[in-house]
Design a protein that fits this description.
Chain A: Keywords: Cell membrane, Membrane, Transmembrane, Transmembrane helix, Transport. The complex is a heterodimer. Chain A is mostly helical. Chain A contains 11 helices and no strands. By secondary structure, chain B is an alpha/beta fold. The chains are: A mainly alpha, B alpha/beta.
Chain lengths: 257, 323
Amino acid sequence: MRLQNAALGAAGLAAFLTLGEALPRIGLVKEAYFPPTSRIARAFADELADGTFWTALGDTLTGWALGLVIAASAGIVIGVIVSVVPYLREATASTIEFLRPIPSVALIPLAVLLYGSELRSVLLLVVYASFWQVLIQTLYGVQDVDPVADETARSYGLGTWARIRHVLWPTALPYVMTGVRLAAAVALILAITGELVMGAPGLGARIAVAQNSQAVPEMYALIVVTGILGLLINVGARTVERRALAWHQSVRGEVAV
Amino acid sequence: MRRLLVTLAAGALMVTASACGSSGDPEASDSGSSSDGTTTVKLGLIPIVDVAPVYLGQKKGFYSKHGLKLDISTASGGAAIVPGVASGQFPFGFSNVTSLLIAQASGVPIKAVSNGIASTGVQSKDFAGIAVKKGSSVKSAKDLEGKKVAINTLKNINESAVRESVRKAGGDPDKVKFVELAFDQMPAALDGGQVDAACAVEPALATIKSQGGQVIASPLVDVAANTTVALYFTSTRYQQQHPDLVKKFQEATAESLAYADAHPDEARRIITTYTKIPASVLAQVTLPKWPAEPNKASIEALAKLGEEDGFFKKTPDVDALLP
């Protein structure tokens, strides 16, 4: 079953790449603006051989990782506090709903004003965008706590901390993990967008330079890199999620079949 | 769960460690003096052909000769640089004249310190041009009436300049339909017929020409003879606090501009170090002029055009802006 899936996936990718090679070759799209796969692959190989590419990749991953860690920790802590402290949820609900839909990209002028075009301005965007993903999921997760389980814990004399640890956290964890997985993807998008628009060092800035330089194959090669990064991050996040929730029925069910 | 967290933390650490060297700023620090008397100053610019003299001057040691070490922060558009300089993120920045006039007219405390680039002053042989597709019925700037013209930023220098070209050719600039499009997308848009003409700069202009496109007007040449297009600038606060550093930057930049202007081949070569312009395109690129001094008459002309076109909140003070 698994082998068949992998084979199908590879076949799909191969078809996609062949299409990318064929369309410009037969002239359906102009080669100058959409280079064939082989030309992009050559630019991709050139990138991999270039030391500055790796520092740019490192910059992007730093922004992504730091941003995600900050956003996830803040989202979880604030989410639990907001849900546990009486009346806080009601008091903050409208503010959260107001702030949450503000696109991070709209904060670019603010980020530039505060930090110029460097890592901190990218972090601002990344943290703002991914924080809400984690916070909202944490809030929902905590809300999902079984009142009977909570009451039982209370009647057994468990304190606030012990109830958070043994009742609230296991219930909320699957939600939190979903939030972190979404946040990981959003963080990557925002890290690259921030670099692309503001020029902070990283893959995004490299894409912008390639664009401004009319270096079309190089630009697509870098875009492919961001796609691969996104794929790896998604696979990684799913693995982490599966391992963290190995005890949970949603994951156990999957494995038992 | 605990092991997982440890793995995650280790992973994050590794990523951070591997990224110790940043691609943007090798030795990032604020403008602090080091023991040997050199001061590191940040300069915000867009990595395009225009700023080659700064990179060349850095390589030739013109800045270190004046006791300056440039820490170049790249931005993707001029829009990020003016607020960055105004808020003190970078002491120096590079921006086009109309953007600076707009900022000055809105009360942003900035001051030009040095010339940036100038047009070549030669019709059809400038680094910027209004280009049309091969075989287009648009033959002159007057024909742009009723046509869709791509410019990189609405209500900025290129709109002023294109409107002036149309006006000079006897057309009505209000009848031109301007659409905003990044320079790098202009060749494809022109080729695909999404726009009838595009006001492009190098290297996009070279790409358009290589595909048979025709330059029908040189808008920056129409504005004035030898138009000053962009300037290096600082904030008025920085100028008051560090007049000595501003003076050093001025002298080193003037030297770099003169050198680049006199050595176009070296300028062309340095461009390959900070852009990805393919060699075949770079050979076709028309370089701008890099005079050491800004041309005040052309800046006044741009201020007048911007005023006519309604870009400013109040009349900008050209004398207060210029060094």
